[in-house]
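Subject: Sanity check before I submit

Could someone independently write out the structure tokens for this chain? I want to compare against mine line by line before I put it in a report. The sequence has 636 residues.
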Amino acid sequence: MSDNQGITKRGGQIPVSKDRNAPWKVSRRNVLTALGATGIVMAAQSFGGASLLSRSEASGSEPFVKRVIDIAELRSLTGVQNGQAAAVMMTGRAGLFYFSSMNLSAQVANDPQSGVYVAPSSDTTGSSGAWIRQYGQAAAFNAKVNIAWFGAVGDGVTDDYPAIQGAVDFSLNVFFPEAPVQWRVSQSVIVRPLQQLEGECKWQEWNLSADAAKGIKGDPGVAPFTTLPTGTSYPSMPPASAQQRRGLTFYRMHVIGDHAPAIIHHYANNFTYRECCLRSNYAPTIPMRYSYRGTFDNNFIGTSNYAGWAVQLYDNCNAIDFKGSNYIAGSSIGGAIDISKSQSITIQSGVHEVVGLACYRIGGLTTQNAEYINEVGNCHGIRIVGNYFERCALPISAGMAAYVFGLEIEGNFLSCGGNETAYRTGFELGSVSGWKIQNNSLIKGANNFPTIRFGYNSSASYRYAVAGTLKDNHVQRNDLSSGIDYEADASMPAGLLGYLFGSNYMDFTNTRDLTDGSPITFKTFGRLHEWTSRAIDGIESTKIIDFDQVGPEGGLIEEVTVYLVDGTPDASIAVGYFADSQYNANIAIASLTFKGERASVPIGNQLILGGAGRLVIRHTAGSVPGKYTVQIRYRK
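---
Independent answer below. Compare away.
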């Protein structure tokens, strides 16, 4: 290579002359080659109302450009005139600048890292002019800026936080090139509303372990990104509406949290994560609170060494759609997605492997385990459709701590065995109402564990799964031995036998499919009934009062209420199936907590045993006169 040639590199270096102090004339072709795609846009870019390149060509001469090594040398230039151009050759910060003699003090102040506006040393405020990087800002609305222009190094040692925060503060459209080693940040970068962060991550092509260092990584305990403005927090100090980070897009970003999340996403609606690789170690990857209307599309999201869930959707994370084959993993001790106090969430076409906890947990966060009480509550309208689960101990758990109203699980493939995880069950349902499990295919990890397990939520009024359908599923056992298809929690009464199952196929390996049961939808306990007793005097003799009959399929008591009519009697009552000596509720009226004339009776057991028999109230006389009535809401 001759002495008067340099090497064109990715950072934007350009051919240089041997005499660096001489003015440098370059051709149009060399300028565009040096600047890459930026130069192509710049060819149509205005320099003070006229194109520098076009103006030079019209005069029959090549454009005059001053070559400098770095930003410091650009600042030091003297005798600069309005419209003069300079090419910075420093890798990463390379680019074409022109000088404007206008008062640019406001622009210089808003760009403290000098990524776009560079004030000369003779006037560092920019009031008498500044150098302006050319990157297509006049030809394109909200043109993209590069974090390297603002001083990001990416060697894994230098703290790139000031440069990255500077780029994010300067523009709504920020580009993160692949780091030479890693973009390191010592503080969380605070994103802005309507911001698009774009990287070069193509995780689908990676050997993930080999490329773990290529993204932006926070120091231990530092989340690389946050949506919380300075001075705000969840839930005690939420940002004002105007401060909330709406309209965010993370596109092809590679973000790594170490003992911290990758992204803290609170109070940020209308968001999109697309084709990103987001990972964390010893922490959730994306803890999300009070953020709604969002999309996850074709991302890799994973956490390791964390006994929790990679994605947390708590406290009104509503109207969120997972689509486009998101790969979400929680490792052998973690889970993929945890949903609490949120509504209208669809998870479709996802891939999940090696998950030790419930892969999807819905309504399972308890007040004891939550960091804040705001995170705990009921869930509504959850759809799980067309996902692939492999080596998952428990693919789906719902309603084990809070109610889940409206749950659809359809068209999923579940392979639930593997060396990394101990198989527990395919589906676990607690307090779930209005649910449907159909057209799924399940390979069981062990025959002595159930296909579906009905849990017992002792803290809820509706303690069991009701109003649901289980049909047209296919289950393959791993050998020819007998196995368990359905199991109830040991805390649940035998009345659960009143449920009916059917239209599900059990495939014994190397044999033909066998139909298990006749096609029939899951038992829903029929319609709601309500009955109110006559006024009962507390000192009446002990008696049994019938209020209905129950069939062989049993029923469910939803609510028992006592109303005082006159006085405060000290009688006792029991409610339930006459043949069951335990009854469903049994309490002294004097021990109830009344609000006005009304008190709710605690129900120790909601299910009514099957069998042809009477549903009754048992009144046991007290010594204090006074009248009361009993109202019962039940299904059968």
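---
OP: Matches mine. For the report I'm noting this point. Confidence is low (pLDDT under 50) at residues 1-29, 31-63, 493-503, 505-524.
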